[in-house]
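DENN domain containing 5A
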Amino acid sequence: MTTGFSSSSCRFADYFVICGLDTETGLEPDELSALCQYIQATKHNDGARRMSASANEGENFDQSPLRRTFKSKVLAHYPENVEWSPFDQDAVGMLCMPKGLSFRTQADSREPQFHSFIITREDGSRTYGFALTFYEEVTSKQICSAMQTLYHMHNAEQYDILHMPSATPTGIEDSHGLLQASPSISRLQRFNSYDITRDTLYVSKCICLMAPMAFPQACRKVLEQLHQAVSSAQPPPLPLESYIFNVLYEVPLPPPGRSLKFLGVYSPVVCQRPSTSELPLFEFPLGDMFQLLGVENVLQLFTCALLEIQILLYSQHYQRLMTVAESITTLMFPFQWQHVYVPILPASLLHFLDAPVPYLMGLHSNGQDDRSKLELPQEANLCFVDIDNHLLELPEDLPQFPNKLEFIQEISEALMAFGIPPEGDLQRGEGMAKLKGFRACDVVSDRRNGNLAGSPLSSYLLKENETIARLQALVKRTGVSLEKLDVKESPSSNKDLKLQCDEDELRMHQLNIRVREIFANRFTQMFADYEVFVIQSSQDKDSWFSNREQMQNFDKASFLSDQPEPYLPFLSRFLETQTFASFIDSKILCHNEEDKEHALRVFDARVDKVRMLNVRTPTLRTSMYQKCTTVDEAEKAIEMRLSKIDHTALHPHLLDMKIGQGRYEPGFFPRLQSDVLSAGPTSNKWTKRSAPAQWRRKDRQKQHAEHLYLDNDQREKYIQEARNLGTTIRQPKLSNLSPSVIAQTNWKFVEGLLKECRNKTKRMLVEKMGREAVELGHGEGSITGVEENTLIASLCDLLERIWSHGLQVKQGKSALWSHLLHYQESKEKEDTTPGGLGPPGFIHDSERRRSDAGSALPPLKVSLIQDVRHIQNIGEIKTDVGKARAWVRLSMEKKLLSRHLKQLLSDQELTKKLYKRYAFLRCDDEKEQFLYHLLSFNAVDYFCFTNVFTTIMIPYHVVVIPSKKLGGSMFTANPWICVSGELSETGVLQIPKNTLEITFECQNLGKLTTVQMGHDNSGLYAKWLVECVVVRNEITGHTYKFPCGRWLGKGVDDGSLERILVGELMTPSSENEERLCRTPPLQQSPGMIRRLVAISPNSKPKLNTGQIQEGVGEAINGIVKHFHKPEKERGSLTLLLCGEGGLVWALEQVFQHGFKSPRLFKSVFIWDFLEKAQTHFESLEQREMVQDENWQTNTRTFCRFMRAINSTPRNIGKDGKFQMLVCLGARDHLLHHWIALLADCPITGQMYEDSALIKDHTLVNSLIRVLQTLQEFNITLEASLVKGIGI
């Protein structure tokens, strides 16, 4: 990426550096060896393996001296310093030779190796380094004899290890031991020996160019030619100083949109730079990454990078690490990786893998150890990429990238046109990339990923990788054949263009631009309308910065609501990232074109184009896959630049050197003359000489536009600040790490974690509260189920990062779960205390679940250990990471997360045992603040456990509470109950009549909705007055109350033997104020006592017609709102139909208004009226006095439903039957027809007063109109409401 260059650099290269062996200081072991020894020692902690461990350690640390690494030094760099890019000696030294010096003898291979690296400063600006490492003969006698001495010591030690007396108990075996040992000793001496009299010793040396922009191909050529000049028998045409002076001071950067040619030692070097309207500069070979990993793996890695998952690349080739890191980040265009970025992690910085922040790092493997030996601090949210073995380890539940299959198909076609198989191919690497780093021994035939190296595509497709197989099917449908694609023959579409660079380089440019355009096009299509959703700030910039964290910069909810369903899992997570946030921030900060960063400007131009092409309404997104159309034009631009060179730099020339300077010995890279290289030409003639004035002016404008140098420092500051928001630490300092530097870095991490915790909790609460405000009728709906899961998953990820910061020894993939298990173990040891109530680890919180159902249900004990056990008992969750996440979800649902974690951390002995002093969990103030932030989750209700683990078994506890006034002590019948929830129902459960409570286990019912209860009417006294039923989920502790307040029994109340009760979640009474922010505001309990047991004049204050109409309106409104919510968020429809203030209750009020008072002691129910109406209609049918066809169908359906309900085998009473009729009528959209029928029925005249609502035509008509609004909804009834009805 070409971001954040130093302002006044317009030279091609800033420094020339030489690193290698400093003969003055001699051989110093590299920190790496010490580190390896330490890692080995900690690896074998357990006593059982102590014995073999000592041998292993010895072997590993005491690798033969030739295989050890020693400290390298920066021997020289020219010039001393340039003000726009200060020279960072530590960083350059570490990255030029990340493993330090290595020695070889004439027997070893000594091929030069090229690699590039990057130094990111703390402000995010970057410098690139290009290094060529080669071997030179050691001339210093002291060094040679030091090496010989090391060998003598080493061989003696090896001999001791092989003859360890303790390993052999008897003499016979001892002789065996000797026999076996002797070949290995001779082998040791033969392969690992250095004999000063016989062998030539070589040591590595490195020459390096530091440059402000990445031109790896050009820099590689320059360095290789310099090396060639030294190693060839003939001296070069001019002294080396001339060429180095030329590249440092006389070769400018090519201006945007231009190409540049300059001379190396033997041949010209060409580089070109894209114009301001093209994709930013990128010259690493993308083809290499696809060959090394395959398309499928690259896309998974790409998804991880976009979602800011920690990424660790692993390879024995530095250049591969760099190529993959740079390729993945460049493909993210227009977004930029915002976090720690160290493509090559020097050995002395290994502790950085402990960083609890997103990072993209590259780790060098020595090629001997396999993956299992690699101990990583945290793997819960890590993407591990073993580049050499074509292998990816991904974090759990990684969402799919949108349109993944079509996307893979499009990329595969592009790759195959260049002869790269989509599954990747290590063997072709040599020919394609001319990478010196590839060797035949690296080619691995690897079946683990379904990759058989070198197999043809078709057979590969039929093998294991199912994505590619699905692709094949898609290919057939689209009619494109992967087999017959022409492999590009001609390097250039225009035969007449004379190219100034070699064909391989052009092919690399063409493939790069083709793949990059395909990736960029995906984002252009996905975010074509993003500008509409950017929330522009009304404040000035300064106040915008001070309030940045409180403000939303993008309307995520509206954006997501426009997206196709399959995109949501990925997009809802991506919109939460720092990457996306800083992209939008820079959009807000740049009001006009000139201000925009290059990437943003290019992207916006493309988005505008797409919008022009798609004349379709901008908000209606389709999931139609749109292929990339911009490739040809982009390729042409590059070909034009490479065929017609715009600019040639000054040629190298003789410098004013003293006589005798500039001579050197062949085979050795000399110490150069610093006096001629320390400063450039006195007057910068070359700028004037080589560029006409207009060119310079254009160039200046372009450079200005590309942020190469900004006059407007203020703007740069703002953009930088926007970048740094939310990322406390961008980059580790690559310096020799003293304890104080490490402590400071860790302190930054701790602050960063705390800040992130604050932001996450706030974001989750705003979403929740926002939704509740909506349900209370303020404003628009926002959060979706997908998004809630995303937020909770990112909270789990944050907790994992906090728990893995500063771990002493890593156990298992989840640090949080491992800590919980340690705690459980220590508490269970203490748990031998008598009394059975367990150790002090249990908090007996009798206040917590005290409920207004009185002491019917003793409160659940709050126990951290118990919750851990619940999770351990869930067989479906297999991994540690999964268990930790489930535990977090359960604790959130129980509103105990903060409390549990506080209890977990209160065991300070354990925390000290598990964590280093600097760990976040041992910083007391921060820890307190962190727990305080988590406490705020208790203000809202989450169902994030119940709704996610839908298939697990859960124990439920049920208590039936009979009325105290008319206690059920004489009750003789056998009661039963059936509990239903949003996910399923239990079936009939018998309840023991003496205790009236039962505990049972069944598959998760979800949020509970209804309880059906009844009895078998047996015995002498089969009448039962029930106050309510209470059901508790024994894992989450959610307690539901189902009020009843009616009789069950023949000849009493409405003669019902069973009732359907609608319930609601009870809140702990200590938290009454919490009522204000209940999540789904489940309606208040349907207090059925108030449901007019008998219609007698004094039973309750009558509602007037206005209030009744309002009640009906509210009930219907509730149902309409229900259907307007996204499916995942709808509460229970049963509540809206049968709950308090529901539709059944509202229509009951309608029919009770003006009902004639019955005679004393005789109860009349609405059902009685409806039965009379039914008889009337049926008699009319028989006498064939039919009014019209419509009327006839309506009466028929009415009578059919009445008959069906009356003939049901269930013993539901008259009010239960009325409820059933209303529910069925709502389901089949018949209620408004029936009301019209009944209003005109003569029976109504007999049974109602004249003032009754049902007799008032205008009121009835408005009632019918309101009921008609239900017609557009598809109402599905819960099974419990319509059991036993065959309609």
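thats it. The first helix runs from residue 31 to 43. The radius of gyration is 39 Å. bye
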